[in-house]
Amino acid sequence: MNSYRPGSPGVRGFPLRGFSLILGLILLPSLVFAQTGPTESAGGPAPVEKSMVAIIPLGRDETIMTQRFYQGVIDAVAALEKYSPQPISREVFSQEGVEIPMAMPPRQDLTAGARYALTGGVYMDSETMEYYLQLWLWDMSGSTMIYSDILIYENIDDAILSLPGLVEWLFSHIYEVVLEEPVVLSPEPWFSLGLRTGFSRRWYAGQSEAKAVSIEGGIFGSLYLNSLFALQLEILFTGDTLVYRGLDLNSTDVIIKNEQFRAFSLMTPLLIKINFKTGPIRFSPLAGIYAVAPLGKIRYHTNVDGEDRYYTYSLMPLGYTAGLQGAVKFGSGMLFADLRYAGDFGSAAVNNNEKTNYRRSMVSFSLGYEFGVLYRKR
To answer: What confidence tier does 38 reach under pLDDT thresholds 50, 70, 90?
Structure first.
């Protein structure tokens, strides 16, 4: 009877020669390749390093039985493929003057630096006349036992056939912790600066209708409250050009009168952005309000007298804006495109005789670049 208990504690003339030569030159590379076979490229995967297992001699006395079991253990460990058996000779222990360990872990200086060690012994039960092969598996990093089990047998040939199963059972109790490579996260900005420039299509509604295209651009700063929300304050240089055309009612002749109001201002939107990221791409819906501060006076020109007049604003209203921004990682920052709609809450009033007023609606498109200045830990 032989068994082990898994649950127990245990190819005549010139033309022909010329043809043969040509044919040989054609087939030579193929023949060479067929004989040598493909080789691993220098950039191929590196071999997996195997954990070394010290195989300690079985029992304190060497017999034919223990020799066969010892070689069987070595072969069984090698067959697992994950481990490299390192036989330790009996002379190592005799030179050190220590007994060969069986139920105790071997000394670390006698295991050739192996991570694991196998000890064991063979003994007979005098009552049942059965033989027992008991093996112990040790973790040498802490000299602690991993598992132990027993193979009960009467015929050694049958026992040798069962030995690989016993060894595999012991090593199945090794629980290796696989350390994953840490994910290196790019730094996340806490505060960033940027600039953007583009054009704005504007419609003016008031005493009469007008429209124009204006260039706008400026700088901004963004405060990232977290990975999702950010507050953004912008300072944009922009301008308004209103052109009114109609008959000059003060003239006795029929004259087409062109009136032009031109003014420059600073627009300061305060926005909240919601940032959705997928890899290097970011989509950011945004919304907020803005204030407008005039830069100098309003230049008024008409074709009737050809003279320029200058006026001031009596009122510059606040406004609202909303839009969508798409950004992509570029260098150390983000390159973005921005599309927005904006409108005044009320009408801007000009201090002139006609008390000209207008209310703006704007669609703007711009390109820009944003880069981090201060970063938070991740």
So the answer is: very low
User: What is the pLDDT confidence band of residue 303, given thresholds at 50, 70 and 90?
Assistant: confident
E-only strand ranges, the chain? 3-4, 51-55, 83-87, 116-125, 130-139, 144-153, 188-206, 210-224, 229-247, 256-274, 276-278, 281-302, 308-311, 313-315, 319-330, 333-344, 348-350, 357-376
Q: Is 371 exposed, middle or buried (0-12, 13-18, 19+ CB in 10 A)?
A: middle
As beta bridge partners, residue 218 has: 196, 236
- What is the per-residue DSSP string for 293-360? EEEEEEEEEETTT--EEEE-EEE---EEEEEEEEEEEETTEEEEEEEEEEEESS-EEE-STT--EEEE
**Residue 120, phi then psi, degrees to nearest 5:** 175, 175
Q: Look up the pTM and report it.
A: 0.54
